[in-house]
Recover the amino acids of this structure.
């Protein structure tokens, strides 16, 4: 059996810094801090940095993961406004401009890039343009967009990512990308959320699990990422066309569809849970067990996660049969 790596060894340090550089290159960010934990932990760390600003902000909500950001923000006792739009839609520049005009005190905006629950991709360049013009700091939850669509974080204040989801490695590492330096804030933040401590310690202030970092390194090297983005786009086009042919009610319109996930809002006469179970019995894996999916009677086909299931013909054929019942 191979001996476990020490997270303090020179060779691990070299790999760790290489992973940080590769991550930054993938999303065009200057720096990244890597934390042991889930994507939601990265959001808590972002909330901690926003708390240090002591300025009010705006949280954008258009689904489950936007609502999660409210919880992250409340956990850090932030003061913020909420802008909510119907699920299945993307934010429009006028939505943001109106809100910023009504509340000129807003110093930061925080929302999801891909709202994974609804399968909607928001327009990052539009967000940047709106924020840039007004000196507002933009924070983005990119947990499901990194690794599935091209992401350019130049000019973004803080953005979260994770080793699972789009990057396709084992879950367990959370990331916060940044383009400015952090100061440690020992009096104001919990140790593990204090990104300034991470930066000050070359990224490793506390124990990190080397196997997770090496798994991420392997995943980062496994693809030509531009090919992967094209692959995801092709899958999206083809699955959405096939679903349209059987009149499956796709939630997000083509104009704002996130390519790695398609959410289907089943009519009430069908049970998402029963259909998900049936498909699973036939070896087709889709998402349907999360509470927010069960509550809404939604199912999702996805090209994310370590298995890259990419449901296709068989999924659509079985779904058609179920919808005809
Ligand atoms: C999955 C997801 C999260 C939560 O990530 P966890 O690793 O489950 O904590 C947050 N935001 C988005 C957009 C996600 O897709």
């Amino acid at each position: 059996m191979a001996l476990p790596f020490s997270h303090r060894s020179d060779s691990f340090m070299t790999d760790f810094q290489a992973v940080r550089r590769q991550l930054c290159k993938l999303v065009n960010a200057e720096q990244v801090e890597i934390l042991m934990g889930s994507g939601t932990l990265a959001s808590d760390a972002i909330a901690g940095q926003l708390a240090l600003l002591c300025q009010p902000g705006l949280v954008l909500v258009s689904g489950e993961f936007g609502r999660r950001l409210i919880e992250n923000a409340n956990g850090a006792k932030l003061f913020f406004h909420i802008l909510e739009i119907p699920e299945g839609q993307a934010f429009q520049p006028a939505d943001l401009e109106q809100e910023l005009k009504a509340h000129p005190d807003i110093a930061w905006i925080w929302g999801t890039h891909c709202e994974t629950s609804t399968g909607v991709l928001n327009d990052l360049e539009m967000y940047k343009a709106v924020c840039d013009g007004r000196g507002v700091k933009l924070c983005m939850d990119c947990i499901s967009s990194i690794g599935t669509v091209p992401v350019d974080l130049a000019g973004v204040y803080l953005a979260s990512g994770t080793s699972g989801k789009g990057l396709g490695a084992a879950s367990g590492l959370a990331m916060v990308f940044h383009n400015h330096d952090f100061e440690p804030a020992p009096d104001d933040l919990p140790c593990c959320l204090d990104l300034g401590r991470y930066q000050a310690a070359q990224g490793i202030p506390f124990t990190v699990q080397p196997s997770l970092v090496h798994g991420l390194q392997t995943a980062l090297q496994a693809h030509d990422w531009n090919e992967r983005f094209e692959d995801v786009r092709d899958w999206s086009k083809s699955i959405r066309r096939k679903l349209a042919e059987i009149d499956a009610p796709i939630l997000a319109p083509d104009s704002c569809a996130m390519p790695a996930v398609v959410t289907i809002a089943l009519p009430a006469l069908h049970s998402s849970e029963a259909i998900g179970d049936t498909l699973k019995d036939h070896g087709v894996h889709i998402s349907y067990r999360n509470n927010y999916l069960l509550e809404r009677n939604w199912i999702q086909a996805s090209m994310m996660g370590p298995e890259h299931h990419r449901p296709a013909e068989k999924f659509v054929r079985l779904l058609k049969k179920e919808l005809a019942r």
